Amino acid sequence: MNEKETLPVAERDRERLEREHQKDLERIRGFRLIDDDFMNVCFDDNIPVTELLLRIILGRQVFVKQVRTQRNFKNLVGRDLYLDVLAVEDDGTQMNVEIQRSDSGADPKRARYHSSILDSHSLKPSEDFTRLPETYVIFITENDVLGYCQSLYRIERTIKGLEMDFGDGEHIVYVNCEIRDDGTELGKLIHDFFCEDPGDMNYSVLADRVRYFKEDTKGVRTMCKVIEEMRKEVWNEASSEAERKTKEASVRRMYLKGFPADQIAYIIDLPVDEVKDIISSES
């Protein structure tokens, strides 16, 4: 008999939890700001790091009065949207910063949708359109998504033929993380986003924040909770997917046995149209 099998159940559980904890600590040490979950934690409710980021990207002084991460914007007639970082300046300007490691996540039409969501939540009923605040949607992309070998892309609406600014207050910015360590402030910032060790970072305000969540007892405890939530989310998604596949298999079996779609829907607790779609795909 294996020596571990002779241990009491409680002790085996403690050993298993300790192994998981050590893996979590190792994972925390490997986190970088380009990893959106870690970036969200580091930027949440932290004005100094947010002001540094925006000042370097926008090339001007920025005064942030509020910053929140993972804000859920509800859309009653369309798709909801979770924003990685939402910062608000003293003058009401709204800035959405998104980490996009996948090229598909940084499609220009997604940037347009983010802008529209910010606008749709900016005015009260009957409030005049002139009160719409300026908005910035900033995509920090791991690859050169737009493909023109620029470190920074600024997208503004202009009047064709006159090359004049349309003046609608909407701004979209892409930060290309393929270009880094080029000696510029932006290059140094991008370098910091890919550092695992805060000691290798250029900007102390970022390094201190990263160090807190990697080395401070309270910060590490916070990150462990975040990892646990991520683990639960993955588990729930896997469970939902397994349940969906089980129901689809049941629909197919009952259909082959001659059950009509409405009876299958009632027994398995699915909409009739969904049952018909499953049967149609099987056929």
Written as H for each helix and E for each strand, in order along the chain, the element string is HHHEEEHEEEEEHHHHH
Which regions have little confidence, pLDDT < 50, spanning 5+ residues? Answer: none
What fraction of the residues are assigned to beta strands by DSSP? 15-25%
Q: What does the largest sheet look like?
A: 6 strands, mixed
> Radius of gyration from the CA trace?
24 Å
| Physical arrangement of strands within the biggest beta sheet | 1-2-3-4-8-5
* Mean model confidence by pLDDT: 90
Distance between the termini: 51 Å
Question: Brief overview, please?
Answer:
The chain is of the alpha/beta class and 283 residues long.
Describe the protein:
- The protein has 283 residues and is α/β, with parallel strands linked by helices.
- Helix content is 48%, strand content 17%.
- The protein has 9 helices and 8 strands.
- It has helices at 9-30, 36-43, 47-58, 108-120, 185-193, 204-215, 217-256, 261-268, 272-282; strands at 64-73, 81-89, 94-100, 135-141, 152-155, 158-159, 164-165, 170-176.
- The strands form 2 sheets. The protein has a 6-stranded mixed sheet with strand order 1-2-3-4-8-5, with helices on both faces.
- A hairpin with a 4-residue loop joins strand 2 (81-89) and strand 3.
- Helix 6 (204-215) crosses helix 7 (217-256), helix 7 (217-256) packs across helix 9 and helix 8 (261-268) crosses helix 9.
- 23% of the residues are buried.
- The mean pLDDT is 90.
